[in-house]
Amino acid sequence: MLGASPRTARSASTLQLPTDFSPATSGAPTFTYKKELFHVDLREYENAGGDYPQAEEERATKKTQIKELIHSRWEAAKEVNAFNYALNCMYKCLDGKYELSIQVMMYLKCEDNPITTDPLDRHLIAVNASPLERDHCLIIPAVNKCHPQVLNPIAIRLAVDIMLLVTDSDFHILFNSLLGQASVNHLHLHALYWPYDSDLINRCFEHLADVPDVYVIQPPMWLTSAFAFQLTKMEDYEKFKSNIFKCVNFLTDQNQAHNLFFTRAQPIRTDGPDRVEDRRRQLPLYVTCYVFPRQNIVGAKPPSNFNPAANELAGCLTSYTYRFFESAAEQAVVRIIEEEALLPTNVFQNLCCDLSDLYSNRPLGTSRESKTSLLDGLSSPEIDELRDTFESFNQPRSPSVRLKNPLNHTQSVDEQVVRFEIHSAD
User: If 231 and its partner were Cys, which of 3, 64, 240, 356 is the partner (CB 3.0–4.6 Å)?
Assistant: First the structure.
């Protein structure tokens, strides 16, 4: 009987590995790391060069950086023709206020702070057989448990840790939820490099009501609405992960589709100009997470010019046709995002109210009631007139023609991946 012997490991895994399993029997390399190797401010690491304490630790242990290991395994997969096509990427930047860019076509384990308590959990990094760019791979948390495409604390922990380990500002981690352009219903995140910064990192944000560590941006400041979280010091490591999970868990409970974009960004501003670019490259670069609540999309991804998912909502577009790549203009891109992703203003405002209650430990709905009280004293005709004016002013430019149903699940589309493993030990 499994687990009858005290020496036999028990697991809640859907797939039970042999009790004598050892990572040494796997052909995939194991990547182990300690929190001392995290880079909170990437700019400090770049400017300090070899004098940075983390760099000294890496040299002392002769540790290969995770980006080098991912690249070497990706190239090895390329040598054996593991990909569905050969990459031949073309990029260009679109004129306009949002500075959009467009493209035409491992096991992990932390030595000093275990990712999970289950000794049989295996966290996988898999080469994507249909990559968008070199080194494009998938992060699959606890692959043995067959989790659905719903973010959990383990997945967020892995995303944050990998962002802190990679010393490259072009590196991003993306997540597309069910009903939010997820292609398969197993828990995975995308990790890839993009040669252009998202202009979102240069934008001015607002605080989420009275919550100090959560930020909000809305059109016209950005092309869609988003919440933002930023890790500026390791003392806030746990709180940063917890804040992200509270947000995505709430959206999941509300059956609200969402996309996440992890990147390196300058300190988030809440005052000053609408846009400030760090051309002198002097400002810190902190791990930042943008959460985009979006319209629910039902069914398989249709063949179109592009599908707005995590990368696209951050301003990094992938075109599926050369014709659209050649003719794309910011106005057309914004229109597609408005039709297929942008939430109505009142829906996003309700999410903001409820999330501010959640972070402030108030009963859900408290902030909505306080906003409703602003209408006290107005007659019914006056309230109706205000509502009609508001709805007319916020009418989208084009009606959405896509089906939206928060109760349905995304139809899975097969996604072929070639897996390699990067381990990290307890």
Answer: 240
Number of domains in the chain: 1
CATH number for 329: 3.30.428.70
Residues 52, 98: contact at Cβ < 8 Å? Answer: no
What distance in Å separates the CA atoms of residue 73 and residue 406, rounded to the nearest whole number? 39
> Under 8 Å CB-to-CB from 191, ≥6 apart: which residues?
70, 125, 135, 136, 137, 138, 139, 162, 171, 172, 173, 174
> Pick the catalytic residue: 39, 172, 188, 258?
188
The answer to the question of residue 16 being in a domain is no
- Residues found in the chain: 426
Is residue 349 in some structural domain?
A: no
Q: State pTM to two decimals.
A: 0.71
Residue 260 sits in which domain range?
A: 30-343
Beta pairing, strands 137-140 & 189-193:
antiparallel
Q: Is residue 400 part of a domain?
A: no
Q: Which two tokens stand for residue 72?
A: 């070497």
Q: What are phi and psi of 139, to 5 degrees?
A: -100, 120
Question: According to the model, what pLDDT value does residue 62 have?
Answer: 41
- Let me know if residue 294 belongs to a domain: yes
Among the ranges given (100-114, 200-214, 228-242, 304-318), the one the predictor scored with the smallest mean pLDDT: 100-114
HSE-up of residue 392 (Cα within 13 Å, Cβ side) = 6
Cα 374 from Cα 362, distance rounded (Å): 19
**What residue type is assigned to position 360 of the chain?**
S
123 catalytic residue (yes or no): no
Q: Tell me what pLDDT residue 237 has.
A: 96
* pLDDT at residue number 375: 58
